[in-house]
Amino acid sequence: MTETKKIPRDICQIQCVHPEAVDRVKDKMPSQDILMNLADFFKVFGDHTRIRILTALYREELCVCDLVEVLGMNQSAVSHQLRVLRGAKVVKFRKQGKMVYYSLDDDHVRELLRDGMDHIQEERG
Amino acid sequence: MTETKKIPRDICQIQCVHPEAVDRVKDKMPSQDILMNLADFFKVFGDHTRIRILTALYREELCVCDLVEVLGMNQSAVSHQLRVLRGAKVVKFRKQGKMVYYSLDDDHVRELLRDGMDHIQEERG
DNA sequence: TCATTATATGAACACTTGTGCATATAATCA
DNA sequence: TGATTATATGCACAAGTGTTCATATAATGA
């Protein structure tokens, strides 16, 4: 029986930190609130279906049933995701009769998609 | 009893599509494979803890226990998330003795973080 | 008015994901 | 060699998320 004396590893007693660096960084960190928003914003791009919708709208404005056709998914799933995209102000829409046309909200969204694409293309060599 | 004649809504019989637009868009869609990678890439940014790590590293290189200090989280949680960030090539690292120093991988990551930040700042007015 | 059509949404369920615990690994020092 | 320390990781579980089904809403035309 080794009876390893159960080190209770005092959580806040870490020795190796660079206190100056930690202070500098802590000082410049945006508020938790902003960082939460930022994460939530990126989360919107982090789903296969939503990325497909955005990539489709990257080319041109489309109505919901066009998107249903392009994605080959059922209308409910598409609408649910459009709601998320709307909520994050990533797409905008206009109504015309019964139909609703969606398009990318602004150029930030375009840039983000392009930057992301660039990154993964590089990764793939 | 209204006996609503249970319309079996033939999935592929949507009338309203703009077939030309749909064709144009379908034609230019990247492969499912690429879009999956893209979504997975953004997914990495879509988490509060990981965004906090990236924001910290935005300023300067830090070792794991610095990050533990900055985030006020336990070491295991931080390591788990660093693994995800490494896997997506969003951070790079160098070993020095027992310690491992992390930093942002490249300028795409910086740009993405900045673009994202710009977007949410605008949203907030 | 009623039927039809395009889109939106609530509920339920399967699946994913982040965290903490315990422990492993690997580097340093005595 | 054994003890200590910095970091990594497997497992389990709670919490979150995407899809489908059923249905609601709203606009159009008969």
UniProtKB/TrEMBL annotation, chains A, B:
<dbReference type="GO" id="GO:0003677">
    <property type="term" value="F:DNA binding"/>
</dbReference>
<dbReference type="InterPro" id="IPR011991">
    <property type="entry name" value="ArsR-like_HTH"/>
</dbReference>
<dbReference type="InterPro" id="IPR051011">
    <property type="entry name" value="Metal_resp_trans_reg"/>
</dbReference>
<dbReference type="InterPro" id="IPR036388">
    <property type="entry name" value="WH-like_DNA-bd_sf"/>
</dbReference>
<dbReference type="Pfam" id="PF01022">
    <property type="entry name" value="HTH_5"/>
</dbReference>
<feature type="domain" description="HTH arsR-type">
    <location>
        <begin position="30"/>
        <end position="124"/>
    </location>
</feature>
<protein>
    <submittedName>
        <fullName>Transcriptional regulator, ArsR family</fullName>
    </submittedName>
</protein>
<keyword id="KW-0238">DNA-binding</keyword>
<dbReference type="GO" id="GO:0003700">
    <property type="term" value="F:DNA-binding transcription factor activity"/>
</dbReference>
<keyword id="KW-0804">Transcription</keyword>
<dbReference type="InterPro" id="IPR036390">
    <property type="entry name" value="WH_DNA-bd_sf"/>
</dbReference>
<dbReference type="InterPro" id="IPR001845">
    <property type="entry name" value="HTH_ArsR_DNA-bd_dom"/>
</dbReference>
<keyword id="KW-0805">Transcription regulation</keyword>
